[in-house]
TrEMBL record, chain A:
It comes from the Bacteria. This is Cysteine desulfurase. It is an enzyme of class 2 (transferase). Its cofactor is pyridoxal 5'-phosphate. Its EC number is 2.8.1.7. It catalyses: (sulfur carrier)-H + L-cysteine = (sulfur carrier)-SH + L-alanine. One of its GO terms (biological process) is cysteine metabolic process. Belongs to the class-V pyridoxal-phosphate-dependent aminotransferase family. Csd subfamily.
UniProtKB/TrEMBL annotation, chain B:
Pfam families: NifU_N. This is Iron-sulfur cluster assembly scaffold protein NifU. Residues 7-123 form the NIF system FeS cluster assembly NifU N-terminal domain. One of its GO terms (molecular function) is iron ion binding. SUPFAM superfamilies: SufE/NifU. CDD domains: IscU_like (cd06664). Signal peptide: none annotated. Belongs to the NifU family. One of its GO terms (biological process) is iron-sulfur cluster assembly. It comes from Alicyclobacillus cellulosilyticus.
Length: 410, 141
């Protein structure tokens, strides 16, 4: 992988921030966009902007073809058996809510269980809390090991015949842990439960094969994988999607509308009520082309090498605590940490003054922060355009922050 | 971007040695507030007698700016009639918007630099939000 060439594809990286070259290490929040993706949005609006699935005119046909082509590209990218199993949504959060409302709520009741972990993003926890409240089902948690991993024995102990749904992130956005979703799916299926995988942090970074993973649903966001904001995906097994209720009712999603009742289109269109995010979907297709061109295996290796380098360099910083699994092989491309004596917000401000963008706070994981016993953490997250020099800049700036604060506090 | 504009000596002093940390008697007005976007928390307690803030204490966790601001706020409002405490809060918020303070804000003026760091303004205003919540007249039932 030629990182220098990759970097040239990302116009935003060519700037200085606060007088320093931008070092963007907040990729788990959102990734930057390569020129072809930005161009695709412009090209759509400048040459064939039209609504999809309605017009007879030329532009309408062109827009519809491009929109459906994007669906096919995404399906190939995740190895879905068919393009009809790819539903365009606004992002991971909406995808999971659609499963919660359209699939889980009608099926669950008192005595049933939903199994998840305390490390989930709020987007993969709060919807299940709501389902539990509405249906009387119980919410259960697979315990976390001290390094944030989970053991399959614990999964076997937590999942029971009463378990109807297991919801877990493939990669944790705080600890970076890569969870064994395939084995978890096996255990869940043996108990008769379906598996919902939050792929927000995995699909952008790891080769994804929904059939090998054997998940029942997969949710992810375009904006973390070089695509625009406002577009995401819900993948599901055919039979579940066919049985699942739409969430939004109205235009686009209907078949026959009468005064008192209506019927829906087939999957996936029954889930795409209203005018969809057309330019976003098309641009996501281009993002997928871009990532495929570089190769997801190459991106994974790049992330892993950077993570290994970051772990090694950060561990040598005095006063640092690094959270999550010890080895880069067990992790996605991110490192979460705290620096003794410097609150993460203060740290982020000091780093920002050096042009370095990291995330500080609870990362939408308040229960996990409680489990870690800290109010907040700092997180550096990597992607295909990051370099070892970026990590060197981070480590040097941590040193600056320490000195600044120790001096300031005197 | 000048870090020294933000992290003034007075702020660091309050951060390291926060004033008025602790709890008041059970009849004190208590407000628990958090900033959901970053996780900063404050529990503010005020003793109000005859419309005057006679004592103030807080506990919290957060960054240097939020904790220093809470420490300074408790010092500043002690002894003030409620109306004046609210007026002070308005002046402080105006300062956070980048306006020149319309009165002498004492130590609080050390926080003026925060206005140049938009991402950190909410850190500085958390304690003031708690103050306003504590003393603002409640709508009638
Ligand atoms: C693991 C995980 N799940 C869910 C989400 C929510 O994604 P979105 O905000 O794009 O819906 C995120 C994004 O921060 C995430 O990291």
């Amino acid at each position: 992988m030629d990182v220098a060439a990759v970097r040239r594809d990302f116009p935003i990286l060519q700037q200085t921030v606060n007088g320093h070259p931008l070092v963007y290490l907040d990729n788990a929040a959102t990734s930057q966009k390569p020129r072809p993706v930005i161009e695709a949005i412009r090209h759509y609006y400048e040459t064939y902007n039209a609504n999809v699935h309605r017009g007879v005119h030329t532009l309408g046909t062109k827009a519809t073809e491009a929109y459906e082509l994007a669906r096919e590209k995404v399906a190939r990218f995740i190895h879905a058996p068919s393009a009809e199993q790819v539903i365009f949504t606004r992002g991971t959060t909406e995808s999971i809510n659609m499963i919660a409302y359209g699939f889980a709520r009608p099926r669950l009741g008192p005595g049933d269980e939903i199994v998840t972990t305390a490390a989930e993003h709020h987007s993969n926890l709060v919807p299940w809390q709501q389902v539990a409240r509405a249906t009387g089902a119980a919410l259960k948690f697979i315990p976390l090991q001290p390094d944030g991993t989970i053991s399959l024995d614990d999964v076997r102990r937590t999942v029971t015949p009463a378990t109807k749904l297991v919801a877990i992130a493939h990669v944790s956005n705080v600890l970076g842990t890569i969870h064994p979703v395939r084995e978890i799916a096996e255990i869940a299926h043996a108990a008769g439960a379906v598996v919902v995988v939050d792929g927000a942090q995995s699909v952008p970074h790891l080769p994804t094969d929904v059939q090998a993973m054997d998940c029942d649903f997969l949710a992810f966001s375009g904006h973390k994988m070089c695509g625009p904001t406002g577009i995401g995906v819900l993948y599901g097994k055919r039979k579940w999607l066919d049985e699942m209720e739409p969430t939004y009712f109205g235009g686009e999603m209907i078949d026959v509308v009468e005064l008192h009742q209506s019927t829906w289109k087939e999957t996936p269109w029954k889930f795409e009520g209203g005018t969809p995010i057309i330019a976003g979907a098309i641009a996501l297709g281009v993002a997928v082309d871009y990532l495929t061109g570089i190769g997801m295996e190459a991106i994974r290796q790049h992330d892993r090498a950077l993570t290994a380098y970051a772990l090694e360099r950060l561990r040598r910083v005095e006063g640092i605590t690094v959270y999550g699994p010890a080895r880069a092989e067990q992790r996605g491309g991110l490192v979460t940490f705290n620096l003794e004596g410097v609150h993460p917000h203060d740290l982020a401000t000091v780093l920002d003054a050096e042009g370095i963008a990291i995330r500080a706070g609870h990362h939408c994981c308040q229960p996990l922060m409680r489990w870690l016993g800290v109010p907040a953490t700092a997180r550096a997250s990597f992607y295909l355009y990051n370099t070892e020099q970026d990590i060197d800049a981070l480590v040097n700036a941590l040193q600056t922050a320490k000195e600044f604060f120790h001096h300031a506090i005197g | 971007m000048q870090l020294d504009d933000l992290y003034r000596q007075v702020i660091m002093d309050h951060y390291q040695h926060p004033r008025n940390v602790g709890e008041l008697a059970a009849d004190a007005i208590t407000v628990d507030l958090r900033n959901p976007s970053c996780g900063d928390e404050i529990k503010l307690q005020l003793q109000v007698k005859d419309g005057v803030v006679t004592d103030a204490r807080f506990r919290g966790s957060g960054c240097s700016i939020s904790m220093a601001s809470a420490s300074m706020m408790t010092e500043a409002v002690k002894g003030l009639p409620i109306a004046e405490a609210l007026a002070l809060s308005r002046s402080f918020r105006a300062m956070m918007r980048g306006e020149e303070p319309d009165r002498d804000l004492g130590d609080l003026e050390a926080l003026q630099g925060v206005s140049k760091f938009p991402a950190r303004i909410k850190c500085a205003t958390l304690a003031w939000q708690a103050l306003e919540k504590a003393v603002r007249p409640q709508p009638a039932e």
